[in-house]
């Protein structure tokens, strides 16, 4: 009995070391796992803080661009309106009835070619009457000359009789007056003949207008009359034009040149003309003249360009593109438009100096091309400017320049 009671409590004491060993092993595993997960994270955090500190100490990276000088000449393409070199409306110069026309729209005619014929019976009758009047007045002149001869002879006879005392002075004075009247009648008859001749010439001229001819080489662009229609002279406000004639072997192109280039346009300057639908073909032209004054509404200079058109490829009324090459009087530089800072003051540009510090400088701007802008004053070619400086880049900030990527 005593032997069994003493052996029972010894068994639990013998199991505690094993439990403690298991607990220690589990604790060691947990500690090792914690160490393996925490130490790399701590190292990573330390590295991130180190990189952040280095980045904070490093100058900011800023996009920059280089100011470039523009070319000594500039090309400008402007819209133009094509017009014939010469165009006229052909109206009748005599009254009558159109007997026929010999040309129609689209026909090319030569100078002096007959376009139409007009019958003028009234003018023909007036001309016959004027010629008959001329014959009558010539006969009257002969009679007046004979009367003058007779009157002068009577004057000489009365003078001799008066000087010899056979006649009174009154009779002599009467003979002198009759002689003067006869001479005046001759001069009046001669003047009447000149009037008759002028009237005949006028009617012959009107009769010559029975044939309507072309004043120059060109193309008929309109015909507004048919045979049998009555035409009246000297009434252009109420009478339709017979024909419309244009000369197109050389065309005029009117261009409105902006004020920027207005002083560079000179007579004799060359220009290239093309059509939008055929941009590959260019027509050589020459500046013929300018208005020499700008339109105050558009601030443009009306310029006339003459373009030879032997094959009729350019038609009056066409919309054309005119390319000018202008010599520049000043040579500005160009920079990206995003480099210009516009505040309440004058435009400024952030220029990077030799120490990579940003210095804001006032400038004067020229033409705006959209993505780029001209700087006429305040910037030299080759200088580096900041693109998109923003408000967080104060003057004097040292930066790390990053060139604009090439397109």
What are the main properties of this structure?
407 residues; alpha+beta; Elongation Factor Tu (Ef-tu), domain 3; 6-stranded mixed sheet; 6-stranded antiparallel barrel; 35% helix; 35% strand; disordered N terminus
In short:
The protein is an alpha+beta fold. The chain contains five helices and 22 strands. Helix 3 runs antiparallel to helix 4.
Q: Would you kindly provide a written description of the structure presented here, covering whatever features stand out?
A:
The protein is built from five helices and 22 strands. The protein is an alpha+beta fold and 407 residues long. It has four domains: 2-57; 121-209; 244-327, Elongation Factor Tu (Ef-tu), domain 3 (Beta Barrel); 332-403, conserved putative lor/sdh protein from methanococcus maripaludis s2 fold, CATH 2.40.420. Strands 1, 16, 17, 18, 21 and 22 form a six-stranded mixed sheet that branches. Strands 3-10-13-12-11-14 form a six-stranded antiparallel beta barrel. A hairpin with a 5-residue loop joins strand 17 (348-352) and strand 18 (358-362). Helix 3 (121-163) runs antiparallel to helix 4. The model is unreliable at 1-10 (pLDDT under 50).
Describe the secondary-structure layout:
Elements (H helix, E strand, L loop, with lengths): L1 H6 L2 H48 L3 E6 L1 E2 L3 E18 L5 E6 L6 E2 L4 E6 L1 H43 L5 H40 L2 E3 L4 E6 L6 E2 L11 E16 H4 L7 E6 L2 E18 L4 E9 L10 E9 L5 E4 L3 E2 L6 E5 L5 E5 L1 E5 L3 E6 L6 E3 L13 E4 L4
Parallel strand pairs: 1-22
Antiparallel strand pairs: 1-21, 2-15, 3-10, 3-14, 4-6, 4-9, 5-8, 6-7, 8-10, 10-13, 11-12, 11-14, 12-13, 15-20, 16-17, 17-18, 17-21, 19-20
Helix pairs in contact: 3-4
